[in-house]
Amino acid sequence: MNRTYHSLLLAGVMTLAGTETFAQTQGQTQTLSPIRIEVPAPAQSLTQPTAEQAKQKIEQVPGGVDLVPAEEFRDGRAATLKDALDYVPGVFIQPKFGEDSRLSIRGSGLARNFHLRGVKLLQDGVPVSLADGSGDFQEIDPLNIDYIEVFKGANALRYGSTALGGAINVHTPTGRDLDGVLTRAEIGSDGYRRGQIAGGQHGADWDAYATVTTIQQDGYRDHTEQNNLRFNSNIGLRLSDRAETRFFIAYNDIDQQIAGSVSRDQALNDPRRAAAGNLALDYKRDIESIRLGNRTSIALADGTASFGGYFVSRELIHPIFQVLDNTVLDYGVFGEYETEGQAFGLKQDYVLGLQLGRGTTDNLRYTNVSGQKGALRYQSEDTSQNADLYGEARTWVRSDLAVILAAQAGYGTREVEDKFLSDGDASFDKSFTSFNPRLGLLWQAAPNWQLFGNLSRSTELPTLSDLSPTATAPIGNVDPQTAVTLEIGTRGSQGRFTWDVAVYRAWMKDEIQYFTAANGQSYAQNADSTIHQGLELGLDVRLLDDLFTATGGDSLTLRQAYTFSDFRFDGDAVYGDNKLPGAPRHFYRAELRYDHPAGFYAGPNVEWVPEAYYVDNANTTETASYALLGLKAGYNDPAGWSLFIDGRNLTDERYIASASVSTTATPASAVFEPGFGRAVYAGVQVRW
After folding, report:
1. Which of 141, 157, 148, 209 is nearest to 181 (CA)?
2. b vs e for 647-668, b when ≥16 Cβ sit within 10 Å of the residue's Cβ?
3. Quick check: 45 and 172 in contact, CB under 8 A?
4. Residue 21 within any structural domain of the chain
5. Domain count, the chain
6. Is residue 18 classed exposed, middle or buried when 0-12, 13-18 and 19+ CB atoms within 10 A define those classes?
7. Which InterPro entries does UniProt cross-reference here (predicted)?
8. Is residue 584 part of a domain?
9. What residues have CB less than 8 Å from 560, skipping those under 6 apart?
10. pLDDT at residue 412 tops 70
């Protein structure tokens, strides 16, 4: 499947969508009367819960979860997943290049020096991550978000995630969220330009939403130019008062250059310069994809049934040490049934679900000739399959105390059929099974706050690249990593305080770590025993009220997110009890914000890493501590328009945002990713 095919398919989809919109518009011109208003659309969608509905549901999870509404990050620059998740404790997400980031939850995937492992990304319940568990961030558009659900660790059971990091599910808007037109424009430093146009409409038994966004920027560093176009849409149809189906259509065309990792000295003293090898070989990552999905929900007499399917076609052209040319097809089906009842006089509710997914990759690699394809160096047909069955039973042993029993059974395969045999046969066919039970307690101590705890097991299967290294290493010689995690915490609000706190400890076996071979390439290998433990603290404090208004209504609020991470080997034969590299021990974000009832807001913010962290298993080389100061201000007019100005790193601090990891490193090792310098962004949004 190539870009021409994608373009033709997208044109057909948009033509059909345009035909539907024209038909609805023609019908609407005949009914623009008071009668039209007397037949409003249903108050809510059955297939896309509102943020408030999702919040009520997520707060019944006895563990670390979070819900981030779009309003929390659309008041400033909204270009990356970091912009959206900056204030979620336990989530470490730092920029690498363009919109790419290093993402880890509770230390997941820290040894992964490229792309993503250990967190399942979804959009509207449809996987963005590949079937083998790897993934990218660029296909998630922060301007196409209604709210984000974050499920840490085994709390992501119902989304089919068995990984240490859990899952992130992005919910997109519908025609019930936006009934009209929205336009937005952002500009800023380093040639940053971003635009959006979105439209939504609904009737008594249908709704439709579509948005197109673009982003272009020269980039803070050399060789980080990007030019991206995204289209997202969905159409919901009410089949009856109790049934609704929704179709999702998305298209992404993403072109971005890669500056690469550099030495510690260059990262701190010459951060704009790209790595020499990246310039010589014209490192890039270009993606074109189409995503189709459907979800149908039926309200039954005793519960709710939901089911659907998805199909994703993705074309990747990726000049790095070789030119990767991958055509990826991912598809699957899912179903879930929820019900409430009683047993032995106790209130109970149950969830039972099944997810089936499959992915195939036509994997080609060529000699990199200044970013262009040279001779064919590798070819294979890669296949991943997953089947996950999960169930959960919640029993209220008292009106304020619930016991949760849950389990997930999984089966997965990873297969590579080597079709380039002149250098040997690297084929393999591996299968894995897993069983992950979970016990949780949820105590509603008061109407506005609760205590929770859980004990769970998680299993993370190796990705295809883990099993088929480019370095000199055994093929298919990586086992799944497992963890037993104990977690306790509390969330709620009281007076001026709103909090979300979790403490956890994970005892891990066979954690998938990356090691460096003699040829300089990295390969995956299982560690023996490791420990991940930490504290996740979100705390908002309404410090002052009625500062400058005679009638009241203004406020000064301190918003904070602190993550303490202690990840280490546990009696390893080589590394003893050394710290695991790749993430800071302390990470703090805070914003002091003033809000006026007329719509004005302003305040400074800070990002603080007070202690350097290691970049190698041997614990010989560190990053550097840093503190970043920002300032954001804006105005939201009741008439439907808004504007903002967003200053980042205003002191122009030289810092290391993230780092790749290795077995042993020196300050000269090219593993450091420079952070972005001083930048200012401004934007305006109009809705009518």
Report:
1. 209
2. bbbeeebbbbbbbbbbbebebe
3. no
4. no
5. 1
6. exposed
7. Beta-barrel_TonB, Beta-barrel_TonB_sf, Plug_dom, Plug_dom_sf, TonB-dep_rcpt-like
8. yes
9. 87, 537, 538, 539, 540, 541, 588, 589, 590
10. yes
Containing domain of residue 119, as a range? 40-687
Query: pLDDT grade, residue 675 (50/70/90)?
Result: very high
> pTM of the entire structure?
0.90
The CATH number of residue 78's host domain is 2.40.170.20
* Run of H or E including 277: helix 276-280
Query: Does residue 27 fall inside a structural domain?
Result: no
477-506 pLDDT, tens per residue? 899 999 999 999 999 999 999 999 999 999
Task: Give the tokens for residue 553.
Answer: 């209504």
**In the structure encoding, which two tokens stand for residue 639, read together?**
């008439």
For residues 162 and 128, is the Cβ–Cβ distance under 8 A?
no
Q: What does the buried/exposed string (b/e) look like for 355-365 if buried means 16 or more CB atoms within 10 Å of the residue's CB?
A: bbbbbbbbbbb
Cβ-contact 108, 121 below 8 angstroms: no
Coil, strand or helix at 464: helix
Determine the residue type at 678.
R
Residues 6 or more apart from 274 whose CB is under 8 A from it? 221, 222, 223, 224, 259, 260, 262
C-alpha closest to that of 442 among 430, 452, 455, 427: 452
Q: For residue range 93-139, list pLDDT tens digits in order.
A: 988 877 778 899 999 988 887 778 889 999 998 888 889 988 888 88
Q: Give me the amino acid identity at 672.
A: F
User: Residue 424: which pLDDT band, with cuts at 50, 70 and 90?
Assistant: confident
The rounded distance, in Å, linking the Cα atoms of 147 and 51 is 6
Which conformational region is residue 495 in: left (phi greater than 0), alpha (psi within -120 to 50 degrees), or beta?
left
Calpha distance 273→267 (Å, rounded)? 9
Three-class SS of residue 29? helix
Cα 590 from Cα 550, distance rounded (Å):
29
Residues ≥6 apart with Cβ < 8 Å to 34: none
CB 139 within 8 A of CB 468: no
Calpha distance 424→543 (Å, rounded): 67
**What contacts 368, CB < 8 A, 6 or more positions away?**
281, 282, 319, 320, 321, 322, 323, 374
DSSP for residue 451: E
**19 falls within a domain:** no
